[in-house]
Design goal:
The complex is a heterodimer. Chain A has one domain: MetI-like (MetI-like fold, Orthogonal Bundle), CATH 1.10.3720.10. Helices cover about 80% and strands about 0% of the residues of chain A. Chain A contains 11 helices and no strands. Chain A has helices at about 5-35, 40-50, 55-65, 70-80, 85-110, 115-125, 130-140, 140-155, 160-165, 175-185, 190-215. Chain A is globular and about 65 Å long. The N and C termini of chain A lie far apart (about 40 Å). In chain A, about 35% of the residues are buried. Chain B has helices at about 45-50, 100-105, 110-125, 140-155, 170-190, 200-205, 225-230, 235-240, 335-340; strands at about 5-10, 20-25, 30-35, 60-65, 65-70, 75, 85, 160-165, 190-195, 210-215, 215-220, 245-255, 255-260, 265-270, 275-280, 285-290, 300-315, 315-320, 325-330, 345-350, 355-360. Chain B has 2 domains: about 5-240, Rossmann fold (3-Layer(aba) Sandwich), CATH 3.40.50.300; about 245-360, RNA polymerase II/Efflux pump adaptor protein, barrel-sandwich hybrid domain (OB fold (Dihydrolipoamide Acetyltransferase, E2P)), CATH 2.40.50. By secondary structure, chain B is α+β, with helices and mostly antiparallel strands. In chain B, the strands form 4 sheets. In chain B, strands 7-8-9-3-10-11 form a 6-stranded mixed β-sheet, with helices on both faces. In chain B, strands 2-1-4-5-6 form a 5-stranded antiparallel β-sheet, covered by helices on one side. A 5-stranded antiparallel β-sheet of chain B has the order 14-13-12-15-21. Classes of the chains: A mainly alpha, B alpha+beta. At the A-B interface, helix 6 and helix 7 of A face strand 7 of B.
Chain lengths: ~220, ~350
């Protein structure tokens, strides 16, 4: 098993999960509390990666981020490098592709928090931010942890978007799952077997964690 | 000018009558106001509007000089800035925090040491010593209520709002806590508005009753006034008790207690101590009217009096009798014709001692 692929995979999974926490928590809280009528549109867009083939998403991202597109051109002129076939590129793809796996458990966690506890906190003088930190986050932690574990594990196993956007460059964008693909293409079944086995064991562990978290009653 | 909690606002929800919160209560001294009505009449919504948890569509809410809400001026103070204490129906204790942390939750502007000292003081006052490290689910209903009150009172609120404060307690605990709660509220000493559907709760806890039906205030006045002189049929149905009077225990003898209500002596069951202040509740159906000259043995309370008024109420008649206090009887048309009752007629009212419900007052 190639160590650089493991390293790229881990970096990608940690970075994706961190970004999803930062972006996903506010987005999920907004989805839980908003009374806006157009909310379903946002929910649909967030859920899209669940049914969309990763190659479709990867293809469009490649088009959007490529140097000839307005967005890609802007990024290149600002940062001096282009996103496709770089670690930054697969990170962007991975964040978008994992949005539902983080946001949907977050929303479930927030929804489970009793509204009256939030109101009780306000009536005790706590600001909305303090209420969020001291009441909502701790009581939604089962859902938040589920979202973190799911998006981490799902990023580790991600294939299509990484291949389309990253191009499978060893040491840069080659992850464990694209390494397996390479090994099989090269008829290197022994190496593919070891890598695939490790990934399988890892996935079983992660899902066990998710289900054990969900079995715990929210709020103790 | 006296500082007042005054409001006149409208809140709409689809499919139910508009809720109209009109109120005028003192804001600078102790008094307990009960919003009384059947479930779904909008009383909790009015309380939530006072707290700032709901925003009315029209009208205004003022507390002393402060404007808490004004639809026209687009003023809506959030609950954090109203200086209120809100006790939720099921107490809404934070399940992930200990009793200590629940109580100290709303104290933020003092040092850690000061905060701990305040919490310790308040826990002693509410008999919660030794429970500080427990979680809410490890407490009894009565203890949970005391924690919820302590958590609110530690912040020295200017107005207490209680939503059905006794409804999540079971029967025996409820009557016990009901008796204590009035004393606790008096000790806290700030104006209080509470919501209840239970008339006994309203009589026990409140000085002033606001009766609500279908979203609107039907009558507002002292407990005695509202229960003894309901202004219309909807109020009469809600209060259900035709006579409520205050008196003082003047004699105790063999299980019977004599209570003087003004000049009139009323015999009731149950022990009390001489000098105790009590409220007597008498339902109209339990009052028998008979000719003034006739005597009936075996009934302890026989009050000679004069008919004040006679009101039709379906097949029944509601007759007010002046027997030192206003006593209302509900009788059939036939009885009225037999006795030929009209305003000014002399009559004797009979009430069994066992039919009088006694509520201690402070």
């Amino acid at each position: 098993m190639c160590e650089s692929a493991v390293w790229v995979t881990l970096r990608l999974a940690v970075a994706t999960t961190a970004i999803l926490l930062l972006l996903g928590l506010p987005l999920a809280y907004w989805l839980t509390t908003t009374r806006w009528r157009g909310k379903f549109l946002v929910e649909a867009v967030v859920a899209l990666p669940i049914i969309l083939p990763p190659t479709v998403l990867g293809f469009y991202l490649l088009m959007a981020l490529g140097p000839r597109s307005p967005i890609g051109g802007l990024i290149q002129s600002v940062t001096g490098s282009s996103l496709p076939f770089s670690f930054g590129g697969i990170l962007v793809g991975s964040v978008i592709f994992n949005l539902p796996f983080a946001v949907r458990p977050f929303v479930a966690g927030f929804t489970a928090v009793d509204r009256r506890l939030v109101e009780a906190s306000w009536c005790l003088g706590a600001s909305r931010f303090r209420t969020f930190c001291r009441v909502i986050l701790p009581l939604a932690r089962a859902g938040i942890l589920t979202g973190v574990v799911l998006s981490f594990a799902h990023t580790v196993g991600e294939f299509g978007v990484v291949l389309m956007l990253g191009g499978n460059i060893p040491g840069v964008t080659q992850t464990i799952s694209t390494l397996i693909y390479d090994d099989v293409q090269a008829m290197n079944y022994g190496a593919a077997n070891v890598t695939a086995g490790v990934l399988l064991a890892f996935s079983v562990c992660m899902l066990s964690v998710v289900y054990s978290l969900q079995r715990r009653v929210p709020g103790l | 000018m006296m500082a007042e909690l005054a409001s006149d606002f409208e809140k709409r929800f689809p499919g139910v009558p508009v809720i109209h919160g009109v109120m005028r209560r003192p804001a600078d001294r102790f008094s307990v106001t009960a919003l009384l009505g059947a479930s779904g009449c909008g009383k909790t919504t009015i309380l939530r509007c006072l707290a700032g948890l709901e925003r009315p569509e029209r009208g205004w809410i003022r507390f002393g000089e402060e404007v808490w809400f004004d639809a026209e001026r687009r003023v809506h103070l959030p609950p954090q800035r109203r200086g209120i204490g809100f006790l939720f129906q099921d107490y809404a204790l934070f399940p992930h925090l200990t009793v200590d942390d629940n109580i100290a939750y709303g104290v933020t502007d003092v040092s850690r040491r000061m905060r701990r000292r305040q919490a310790a003081e308040i826990m002693e006052r509410f008999q919660l010593e030794g429970l500080g490290r427990r979680y809410p689910r490890q407490l009894s209903g009565g203890q949970q209520q005391r924690v919820a009150l302590a958590r609110v009172v530690i912040r020295r609120p200017r107005l207490l709002l209680l939503d059905e404060p006794l409804s999540s307690l079971d029967g025996p605990t409820r009557s016990e806590v009901r008796r204590e709660l009035r004393q606790v509220l008096r000790a806290i000493g700030v104006p209080t508005v509470l919501v209840t559907h239970d008339r006994i709760e309203a009589i026990t806890l409140a000085d002033h009753v606001v009766v609500l039906s279908e979203g609107s205030v039907r009558q507002s006045g002292s407990v005695e006034d509202v229960f003894s002189r309901p202004e219309d049929l909807s109020v009469a149905r809600i209060v259900g008790i035709e006579t409520v009077v205050h008196g003082t225990v003047t004699g105790v003898d063999n299980g019977l207690t004599t209570v003087s209500v003004g000049e009139t002596l009323v015999v009731v069951l149950g022990a009390g101590l001489i000098g105790d202040r009590v409220s007597l509740c008498i339902r109209g159906e339990d009052v028998i009217l008979q000719e003034a000259s006739k005597r009936t043995s075996g009934i302890r309370n026989q009050f000679p009096g004069q008919v004040l008024d006679v009101v039709h109420e379906g097949t029944m008649m509601r007759v007010g009798v002046d027997c030192g206090f206003r006593l209302t009887a509900v009788i059939t048309k036939q009885t009225r014709e037999e006795l030929q009752l009209q305003e000014g007629s002399p009559v004797t009212a009979l009430v069994k001692a066992a039919a009088i419900h006694v509520i201690p007052r402070d």
